[in-house]
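Hello,

Our lab assistant flagged a job as stuck in the queue for most of the afternoon. It eventually completed. Since we weren't sure the result was trustworthy after the delay, we are filing this so someone can double-check. Below is the sequence as submitted and the structure that was eventually returned. Let us know if re-running is recommended.
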Amino acid sequence: PPLVLWAMAHDWPSKKMRGFLFGAFAATGPAQLLFLSISFGPAILWHAACGCALLPMVYLGSLVGMPIGNSLNAERLRWIAYAILAAIGISAIVPALLGAGK
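-- returned structure --
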């Protein structure tokens, strides 16, 4: 999310922002997989393989989402992205505040 916020702070068209974020995440993926396997052991590779198996679903989702994103103006798309990031953050914080992790 910090990289997403950084990209959204620029006055880039949505296609340039999506291209940059895709390139950045794709370029750092192998290093992230390496560090995860060092931290959690080789069992993480099974989960990475399961994630790769779901890539066709990601592609299908992008077939639906890209036309929707292209039809919105940049400012509205920016606020929708902020709302999604806020919802992700709140969903991570609230269970910890309520003691669900104990």
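-- support follow-up --
The delay was a queue issue, not a problem with the job. The result is valid. Helices lie at 2-9, 14-40, 44-53, 55-71, 74-97. DSSP finds five helices and no strands in the chain.
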